[in-house]
Amino acid sequence: MTSSAAREPRPPAEVVSLTTDYGLADGFVAACHGVIARLAPALRVIDVTHLVPPGDVRRGAAVLAQTVPHLPPGVHVAVVDPGVGTSRRGVALGTPEGLLVGPDNGLLLDAAAALGGVTGAVELTNPRWLAPRVSATFHGRDVFAPVAARLALGAPLTDAGPAVDPATLVRLPEPLVRRVPDGFVAEVLTVDHFGNVQLAAPAELLDPLPARVRVCPATEPTAPGADEDAPAGVGGWEREAVHGRTFGDAPVGALVAHVDSTGRVALSVNGGHAAELLAVDPGTLLRVRGYGVVGDAPGQHG
C-alpha cells in the first residue's frame, strides 16, 4: 500500500473479526459489537475467540495469525492489551489481504505476515474516529471498535491518524528453536483447548526423525551449567512418542509428535491432554530427538 493508496477510500470490507481476552462472563464483547453495529449496522462480525488467556499476548498473536488467512478479506481487531492506557500506541496496519487494528504490543505482526506483510501503518489518534470519552481501561470499545467500523466502511487508513514507520512497531521476542545433533530444541509456543502442545519448530525439523522419538526438558544453551550435548533425560523426565501424522497414529493415551494444521511441530496425546502429561506451559523448552540414535542413553521414561 503506497502512501497515496492509503489516502484513497477503499471498497467496504466484507467482515470485521474480533479476537480478545475479554472472556464471556461480562459485557465487554457485546459493547464492542454494539459500537460496530451503531456505525455499520449491516456489517458482519466474526468472533474468532474471546478466551485468550488474560494478558497472554503471544497466545493471542498465534491464534490471530493462524485464523486470519481463512477469513474473508476484512478488518481484524485484536485486543490482548495489558498495557492499555499507558504510552503504548494503538495502531492500524494495512496488508495486501486486509487490515489489522489493535495495540502496538506485538499482537498483530504475525497476522500481518500471514496476510502478506505490513504495507502501511498509522497510529490511532484522530479524535473524530474515537469515542467522545475514551476510557483508560477499555480501548477495545472506545478506540479499536469504532476505528474498525470506519475502516470497514471504506474510509482511508490515513484518516485514522499519522503514519507510523513499520520498523518501529513492537515485536514479540523470537521463540527459541535450534537444531541439535540428534533432533531439535524448541520453545512451547501455545497450548490449545485440547491440551495439544505446539512447538515453535517448523515441520522440517521433525520430518527426518525416526518413527519413535523422545521428548525431555531442555535448557538455554547460555544458561549456567547448560550442556546441549548431555544425554537427554539425564537429571529429568523423558517420554517416548510416536512420530506420526495424526492423533490416531499413537495408541489411546500415548504421546504423538506430529505436524499440526499450521505447519509447526506439535505434541499431542491420543484421547488425552499433552500439556498436563508433560507438565509444560508456553515458554517451556523441550528437546525432541530420535529414539535409538547415536548417543542414546537410558533415562526416566514415562
Structure description:
This protein has 302 residues and is an alpha/beta fold. The longest helix has 14 residues, at 139-152. The strands form two sheets. The protein has a seven-stranded mixed beta barrel with strand order 8-9-13-12-11-10-14. Strands 2-1-3-5-4-6 form a six-stranded mixed β-sheet, sandwiched between helices. The relative contact order is 0.13. The radius of gyration is 22 Å and the shape is elongated. Helices cover 19% and strands 28% of the residues. The chain has helices at 3-7, 28-39, 57-67, 109-114, 139-152, 203-206, 274-278, and strands at 15-20, 44-49, 74-79, 90-95, 98-103, 120-123, 177-180, 183-191, 197-202, 212-217, 237-243, 255-259, 264-269, 285-290, 300-301. Helix 2 (28-39) packs parallel to helix 5 (139-152).
Nearest-angstrom radius of gyration? Answer: 22 Å
Report the biggest beta sheet as strand number plus sense, adding barrel if it closes.
7 strands, mixed, barrel
Task: Give the topology string: H per helix, E per strand.
Answer: HEHEHEEEHEHEEEHEEEEHEE
Strand content: 25-35%
State the share of residues found in helices, binned by percent. Answer: 10-25%
Please list the strands of the largest sheet in the order they lie side by side: 8-9-13-12-11-10-14
Write down the overall mean pLDDT.
Answer: 90
**Cα distance, first to last residue?**
53 Å
Spans of 5+ residues with little confidence (pLDDT < 50)? 1-5, 222-235, 294-302
Question: What structural class is derived from the secondary structure elements?
Answer: alpha/beta
Number of helices: 7
General form: elongated
**What is the β-strand count?**
15
Name the assembly state: single chain
